[in-house]
Amino acid sequence: MWAHLGWQDIKQRYRRSVIGPLWITISMAVTVTALGLLYSQLFGMKLEDHLPYLAVGFIIWGFISNCVNEGSEVFISNEGLIKQLPAPVTIHVLRLLWRQVLFFAHNLAVYFVLLLLFPKPLSLTALLAIPAFALIAINGAWVIIVVGTISTRFRDIPPVTQSIVQLMFFMTPIVWNYDQFRAHENPAIAERARLAELNPFMHFLEIVRQPMLGSPIVWHHWLVVGVFTVVGWAVALVVLRNYRARVSYWV
Q1: CA 161/CA 179 separation, integer angstroms
Q2: Which of 18, 47, 132, 210 has its CA 20 to 30 A from that of 142?
Q3: Whole-angstrom Cα distance, residue 134 to residue 137?
Q4: Mean pLDDT confidence for 183-209
Q5: Burial (Cβ within 10 Å: 0-12, 13-18, ≥19) of residue 61
């Protein structure tokens, strides 16, 4: 049911559109190209290096931010179904997650085009991007459960969540390169760049971006993501056990 509903969401959004879901890819390609041209000049980086870095970062961030932002309203926006359909609330969580996976798959077309334009030496480690994305999706599920439940009870949470996600976009190495600042000749700037390690979004980003760009794998990013996965799902299971029956009353 959740897979069918998620697919219908995309079909409904692009109903009567000439090129349909390709608008997702076109929008991403235009944004990445414009920002890549701008920031490669500002940071003094080669376009063939910065554009793929920026594109992969945007694609992954799009998935993460949509899970958080739309997850905060996942039960509110499905009020009618929750009240009329005798089904577990997790169906709406999986529906949203599946829809974001489909969006992610569409945006990957930008990545493959850039690989053709700017070939990079990739090895078998590139396959690590598959389990890495699976980890992000698993974490996305518990985030939707927790944030969605809290937001259903306290309606002030969604705008707060959106503001936090927007702020974290600028604090996460997406348009700026973490390695470039960490290797800066000014030791003060290099030391401050290490503060980015305190940003959990960075670790989720890097476990996928590094294999996709053929960069050396830094395993401590995987460790941090693993810890968040265990702790996050522990919290989500507690929330489901105690509050899932109340969601239908809160909406």
Answers
A1: 28
A2: 210
A3: 5
A4: 82
A5: buried
Residue 178 confidence (pLDDT): 80
Binned at pLDDT 50, 70 and 90, residue 199 comes out as confident
Q: Do 181 and 189 form a contact (C-beta atoms < 8 A)?
A: yes
Q: Map residue 175 onto helix, strand or coil.
A: coil
The Cα–Cα gap between 122 and 120 comes to: 6
Report d(CA 222, CA 225) in Å as an integer: 5
Identify the pLDDT of residue 17.
65
Q: Which residue has the tokens 């940003």?
A: 199
**Cα-to-chain-centroid distance, residue 230:** 18
> What spatial distance separates the first Cα and last Cα of the chain, rounded to whole Å?
21
Confidence category of residue 232, pLDDT binned at 50, 70, 90: very high
- Locate tokens 């931010």: which residue? 65
Measure the CA–CA gap between 144 and 97, rounded to whole angstroms: 8
Half-sphere exposure of 45 (CA within 13 A, CB side): 23
Quick one: the chain helix, strand, coil %, rounded to 5? Answer: 80, 0, 20
pLDDT for residue 19 is more than 80: no
Contacts with 219 (C-beta within 8 Å, 6 or more apart), sequence order: none
Q: What is the DSSP letter of 46?
A: -
Closest CA to 202 of 226, 178, 229, 185: 178
Name the helix (H) or strand (E) containing 169.
helix 157-171
